[in-house]
């Protein structure tokens, strides 16, 4: 079964739209429960979120922010995703609660960091040790790589078939740096909302292959939160090869 798909073409307002949806989902969630659990990504999406998050009207003390993937590098390395949020958000806006962030322990090996991070997530969701229940994030904000990767799930990589582990190590990422940890499909597809942002003409071809051709060799096309919602936000340039409302129907 496919999750309902919403496609928003937003002129050049991808940043405003992503931040607006983040505020909306956070506050809708907090009207119903005490904690808003968010997963954020690296790359272009990280820059958008880290620069704009402080301005949102929400009770950040009730947010828990995790990483959809992380590169195993020190936090002051320019490749560190947590490093982007630290530099652009936490260091500039000291009122934003640092404790909202749950960084990956990048002092460990990728394997150990993945095991520890899965435990961290399960604990934050109030699960007992040994639980096999899959936590459901309120919102995951995901990026689209030029090769169709998302988080650190890359085309043709064996991790695409992972069914049990929720956070997996990757030692041979085709995009540097090679060592990373990443959410796998069981965790991603259990989210209540998976929200993608696509900005720039460089994303047009891959977005067409994902949304129009439904090319299942592309990791983004396999994101399908079956009990949740799937939303793509694209600027006009990124959406230039898409006509009308895409449905991601399987092609014969
Ligand atoms: O390596 C990564 O790339 C993707 C896509 O990044 P973008 O800069 O092309 O938008 C990102 O979503 C992922 O978190 C990151 O680790």
TrEMBL record:
It holds the Pfam family Glucosamine_iso. Pathway: Carbohydrate degradation; pentose phosphate pathway; D-ribulose 5-phosphate from D-glucose 6-phosphate (oxidative stage): step 2/3. CDD domains: 6PGL. It catalyses: 6-phospho-D-glucono-1,5-lactone + H2O = 6-phospho-D-gluconate + H(+). Keywords: Hydrolase. Residues 12-231 form the Glucosamine/galactosamine-6-phosphate isomerase domain. GO terms for biological process: carbohydrate metabolic process. GO terms for molecular function: 6-phosphogluconolactonase activity. It is an enzyme of class 3 (hydrolase). InterPro entries: 6-phosphogluconolactonase_DevB, 6PGL, Glc/Gal-6P_isomerase, NagB/RpiA_transferase-like. This is 6-phosphogluconolactonase. It comes from Culex pipiens pipiens. The lineage of its organism: Eukaryota, Metazoa, Ecdysozoa, Arthropoda, Hexapoda.
């Amino acid at each position: 079964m496919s999750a309902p798909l919403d496609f928003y073409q937003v002129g050049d307002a991808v940043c405003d739209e992503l931040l607006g949806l983040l505020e909306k989902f956070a506050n809708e969630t907090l009207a119903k429960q005490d904690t808003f659990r968010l997963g954020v990504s690296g790359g272009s999406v990280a820059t958008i979120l880290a620069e704009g998050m402080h301005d949102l009207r929400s009770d950040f003390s009730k947010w828990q922010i995790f990483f959809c993937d992380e590169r195993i590098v020190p936090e002051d390395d320019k490749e560190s995703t947590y490093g982007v949020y630290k530099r652009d958000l936490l260091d500039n806006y000291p009122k934003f609660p640092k404790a909202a962030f749950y960084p990956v322990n990048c002092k460990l090996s990728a394997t150990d960091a993945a095991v520890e991070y899965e435990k961290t997530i399960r604990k934050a969701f109030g699960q007992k040790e040994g639980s096999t229940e899959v936590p459901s994030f309120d919102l995951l904000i995901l990026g689209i790589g030029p090769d169709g990767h998302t988080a650190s799930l890359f085309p043709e990589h064996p991790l695409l078939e992972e069914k049990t582990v929720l956070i997996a190590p990757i030692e041979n990422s085709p995009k540097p740096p090679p060592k990373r940890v990443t959410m796998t499909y069981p965790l991603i597809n259990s989210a209540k909302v998976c929200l993608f942002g696509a900005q720039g003409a460089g994303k047009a071809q891959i977005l067409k292959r994902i949304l129009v051709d439904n090319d299942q060799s592309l990791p983004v096309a396999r994101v399908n939160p079956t009990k949740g919602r799937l939303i793509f936000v694209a600027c006009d340039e990124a959406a230039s090869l898409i006509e009308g409302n895409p449905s991601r129907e399987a092609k014969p």
